[in-house]
Known about the structure:
Layout: H1 2-18, H2 20-31, E1 44-47, E2 53-67, H3 75-83, H4 90-97, E3 105-111, H5 113-122, E4 127-136, H6 144-147, E5 149-153, E6 156-160, H7 162-166, H8 168-171, H9 182-187, H10 190-195, E7 203-207, H11 211-228, E8 232-238, E9 245-251, H12 271-274, H13 284-294, E10 302-305, E11 308-311, E12 314-317, E13 325-328, H14 329-335, H15 338-348, H16 350-359, H17 386-393, H18 402-413, E14 424-429, E15 434-436, H19 448-466, E16 479-488, E17 495-508, E18 515-522, H20 530-533, H21 535-548
Parallel strand pairs: 1-7
Antiparallel strand pairs: 1-2, 2-3, 2-4, 5-6, 7-14, 8-9, 8-18, 10-13, 11-12, 14-15, 16-17, 17-18
Helix pairs in contact: 11-21, 13-15, 13-19, 14-19, 15-17
Amino acid sequence: MILAAATIAVRLFFVQIVHGNEYSQNADRQYAAPASNIFDRGSVSFKEKDGNLLSAATLKSGFILAINPGDIRDEEGTYNAISAVTPLDHGEFIEKTLKKEDPYEELVHRLSQKEADKINALGLPGVSLYKEKWRFYPAGTLAAHVLGFVAYKGDELTGRYGVESYYNDALDRKGGDLYVNFFAEVFANLKNTLLTDSAKREGDLVLTIDPAIQTALEKELSAVEEAYQSEITGGIVINPKDGGIYAMAKVPTFDLNKFQNVDDVNVFNNQVVEGAYEMGSIVKPLTVAAALDTGAITAKTTYNDKGSLTLNNYTIYNFDKKPHGITDMQTVLNQSLNLGAVYAMRELGKEKFKEYMLAYGLGEKTGIDLPGEGRNLISNLNTNRDIEYANASFGQGIAITPIAMVRALSALANGGYLVTPHVVQKIEYRGGFSKELDYPKGRRVIKQSSSEEISRMLTEVVDSALLGPKEKMKNYSIAAKTGTAQLEMEDGKGYYADKYLHSFFGYFPAYDPEFLVFLFTRNPQGEIYASHTLKTPFMNLTKFLINYYEIPPDR
Length: 555
């Protein structure tokens, strides 16, 4: 009796829960005319701060209205009856009714249940209704580049861009026999169903993306784009301790439910992951941290800043082209002095500098779970020319993807180790199982003490130089740095004198950070320095996150 009861319970679970959707579809087919397999796909959910899930990608149901032209005797009467329920093009309708040898011609897609009920009640000869489902994104444009969409690739309807593409194997529904015996399904190949993670299982995705943070980020990026008419503006909000991404966005963006209407398909590309840019002065903290880590310098180490330095017949200047005299390393970060970064690199040594840049992950991909990750361009470090290393020390001459830059900067914030950036936290499989995706700590890059010291120095940058008395948050420690890099000319022969990439990163609370915010904008109009274009959106996001997550003061 116990065995029989258990068997029935398991069977009911699989009928009602695991395969409930398929049986529901079969019931729908009894309402309308029989159809081929109805489109099906796993769902994607945002995760709010309290753990509640909010739909990001789901399915919407409706009906296809089709006719069998050979069965229609009164074309005008049929047209008038249908057009009273849903708009029809008269010419197109008549043209299709003339195809008497064709038993199936579609007229309208995505009819509502109410419309389908009205048409079904008319009992029109030769008119049929077919159940259909399609991909629907409830939030429209929100996190468009993270989500991607479903579209045809050749003859196959599949995930394109974003997690729709990267996790297509989990989200795709191939269908199958609903009456597969549970015990046979599980025990026939126990190793591949329960004991390993390698088996392909269909499931739903739970993202690390918080919709409130995503909305706030997109609002700030759009404001920058509108104010400065930039070519591209992007940003990331990440947990620097575990690599979970709370928000990722790029503008211009697009509506996921109307992606067919875009004028330029390049808008689908996610330059936060795919693009590589010379990042400018936000690289200086990586250089200084590396030199601190070896003991080559301290925050109080000084050098004589003469305003310019010539290497391999090229002359390097500070941003103001002025000498600063005897200057310490804290001032180098406070005033973003190129010559100070070069000094720190030379004290570290070229080989050690290259070793640290590679350790930060700048010579590899991050492994983020999004398609099309770009390649960092750091081949200049394979030369032995002093000028190449000098330029790289302050973020010129090497191009880095924003996601790789965020990963490297997270090591400064989290105690010195690399993380794996990711946007999916969990897969909930159809068989009732779920899997929390595991992203263990990566290699250590700098010592804990070096992480604490560079964080202290970057906090001093904010307190003394970066934000000013009106912006500085009295009760919160914020470590941050701006970057302004000249854009390389299209022919690769030099840099534009009036085109820049602006970047800004910061993390807080500085000594136990919960968030790292990274922003960039390419070729903003009317401003030279990132401190003018990105300071306000950074502080707006910082204040929002502190309030939204109720982060207690740390000083």
